[in-house]
């Protein structure tokens, strides 16, 4: 069960990373969206570290 939770967190982290990259590549990236995604990614990373 623990491995499934960790895998889900890692997938969420990778998904957020892809969203950050996609937003950054736009002609006029929205810095508020990027900041929010980075904040969410950091929370997921912290949760991974605690697992």
UniProtKB/TrEMBL annotation:
<feature type="region of interest" description="Disordered">
    <location>
        <begin position="1"/>
        <end position="28"/>
    </location>
</feature>
<dbReference type="InterPro" id="IPR038444">
    <property type="entry name" value="DUF465_sf"/>
</dbReference>
<protein>
    <submittedName>
        <fullName>YdcH family protein</fullName>
    </submittedName>
</protein>
<dbReference type="Pfam" id="PF04325">
    <property type="entry name" value="DUF465"/>
</dbReference>
<dbReference type="InterPro" id="IPR007420">
    <property type="entry name" value="DUF465"/>
</dbReference>
<feature type="compositionally biased region" description="Basic and acidic residues">
    <location>
        <begin position="10"/>
        <end position="28"/>
    </location>
</feature>
């Amino acid at each position: 069960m623990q491995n499934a939770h960790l895998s889900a967190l890692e997938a969420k982290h990778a998904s957020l990373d892809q969203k950050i990259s996609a937003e950054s590549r736009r002609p006029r990236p929205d810095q508020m969206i990027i900041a929010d995604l980075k904040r969410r990614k950091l929370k997921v990373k912290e949760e991974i570290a605690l697992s």
